[in-house]
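Researcher: Here's the sequence for the chain we discussed earlier.
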Amino acid sequence: MKEYIMDGMKKNEPLRFVIQRHTRDGERPHWDLMLESGGILETYRLTDPPEKWGKKAIEAVKIFDHPLKFLSYEGSVNKGKGRVEIADCGTYCLIEKEETQQQLLFAGKLLRGKFRLCLIRDDRWKLCGV
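Model: Thanks. This is the structure I predict for it:
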């Protein structure tokens, strides 16, 4: 069933997003894509940098939601063992949402254009350009 109203928001109403780059000593960086939705940030963890998003399908693991204050957070995490910096931010519109996929239109510096999030299984999604 298609859904065009999400958490009281109308279809195509701009919402905010942020991409955070997470680094930790001795580990490969990862990126969190945070999407404003109903007063929280739905968060997806990706291992490829935003420059590759849209060029190929990227696995996006749904992790715990974050409070809205993370839209602008940069600094240390994990008791000083890691660091977060904002890689991109902007607005997005929900174009279409179904139970197993959603189509989004992003307007950021790096992330621009239409993308689709498709459920693979459990909390594993696929992010790809449309």
